[in-house]
Specification:
Distance between the termini: 46 Å
Strand content: 15-25%
Order of helices and strands: HHEEH
Helix content: 55-70%
Number of strands: 2
Radius of gyration: 20 Å
Largest sheet: 2 strands, antiparallel
Strand order of the largest sheet: 1-2
Length: 110
């Protein structure tokens, strides 16, 4: 997350403050999305998150005379952050459900 934030700051520094408007004008749909689903393991429904790319990335950043490389590095850093977040979400929900099951098993013991 820190690398993603720093990459965004670097891109703003190199390309200027109007980078946000140029990028938002050139993007119609998100190319990287996160999907959630439930997986049934031994009668327990565990949420599972996965990221996927839905369409090709269009790098039409013709309004940026400089900073295109920094914008691409920023995008790569943000993709890595989304990968790590989805993995962390999976681990967090698995641990929470496991703790809930252990607690309910301990409470039901005589």
């Amino acid at each position: 997350m820190k690398a993603s934030s720093f990459a965004s700051t670097e891109a703003k520094y190199v390309a200027g403050e109007n980078i946000k408007h140029i990028v938002l004008e050139n993007v119609q749909n998100a190319s990287l999305k996160v999907r959630s689903k439930q997986e049934n393991i031994a009668g327990v429904k565990l949420p599972e998150f996965e990221y996927f790319t839905e369409s090709e990335t269009k790098n039409n950043l013709s309004g940026l005379a400089r900073g295109v490389q920094q914008v691409q590095l920023c995008r790569a850093a943000n993709i890595k952050a989304i990968e790590l977040q989805s993995h962390c979400w999976n681990c967090q929900f698995a641990l929470l459900d496991r703790d809930r099951l252990f607690y309910s098993a301990l409470v039901s013991l005589p």
